[in-house]
Task: inverse folding
């Protein structure tokens, strides 16, 4: 309807460093279509902040003194209709990020990411497109040894999918977006999105980042 403005993406900033919180809040509040609705200085404050502010996206630090970002993310994602989570980290070699992704985070960013890219990531995640940087994800994955049995388990899980769905899983594992997958597999964008939705439902996963991790465990990416 003409004259109706879309509601801004509501963001909660969670970081134990007051300067980081202030910087992110100042930067995001000045970005079109984004509003920082609250802050928290530790993971144990997240539940109350969610109840008070109902954010769409949470920017979550990893290392906090009382409840770390991984635990806070896992608890958050267990709530009904949870917000999306973008994990923030200082080091791209921090293996805790993999655990955060497995806990249900939609992706991660380095704290020195340019402001415009952080704002873009917030909008992207809010629109249902998790952040998965092929370069950083590959570097992190290569540092983590696959646990005994994980390979066989991942292969058995993927065996429940159709061949076409497996092709989509492999492409996601390689960091390809929907448009790239459509071009590679000769599918329409709507068909790709439909396959992704079916894969998430069949496998009981939260987002495509977890699909990528499954592909990695199965040795397909």
Result:
């Amino acid at each position: 309807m003409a004259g109706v403005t879309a509601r801004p993406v509501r963001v909660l900033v969670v970081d134990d460093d007051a300067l980081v919180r202030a910087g992110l809040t100042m930067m995001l509040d000045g970005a079109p279509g984004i509003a920082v609705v609250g802050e928290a200085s530790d993971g144990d404050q997240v539940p109350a902040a969610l109840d008070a502010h109902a954010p769409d996206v949470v920017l979550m630090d990893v290392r906090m003194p009382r409840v770390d970002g991984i635990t806070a993310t896992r608890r958050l994602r267990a709530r009904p209709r949870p917000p999306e989570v973008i994990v923030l980290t200082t080091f791209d070699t921090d293996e805790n990020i993999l655990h955060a992704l497995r806990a249900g985070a939609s992706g991660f960013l380095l704290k020195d990411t340019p402001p415009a890219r952080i704002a873009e990531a917030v909008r992207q995640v809010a629109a249902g497109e998790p952040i998965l940087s092929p370069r950083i994800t590959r570097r992190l994955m290569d540092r983590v040894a696959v646990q005994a049995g994980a390979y066989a388990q991942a292969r058995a899980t993927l065996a429940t999918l159709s061949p076409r769905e497996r092709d989509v899983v492999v492409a996601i594992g390689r960091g390809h977006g929907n448009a790239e997958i459509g071009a590679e597999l000769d599918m329409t964008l709507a068909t790709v999105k439909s396959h992704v939705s079916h894969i998430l439902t069949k496998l009981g996963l939260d987002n495509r980042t977890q699909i990528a991790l499954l592909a990695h465990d199965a040795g397909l990416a």
User: Anything to note?
Assistant: The CA atoms of residues 13 and 113 lie 15 Å apart. The mean pLDDT is 85.
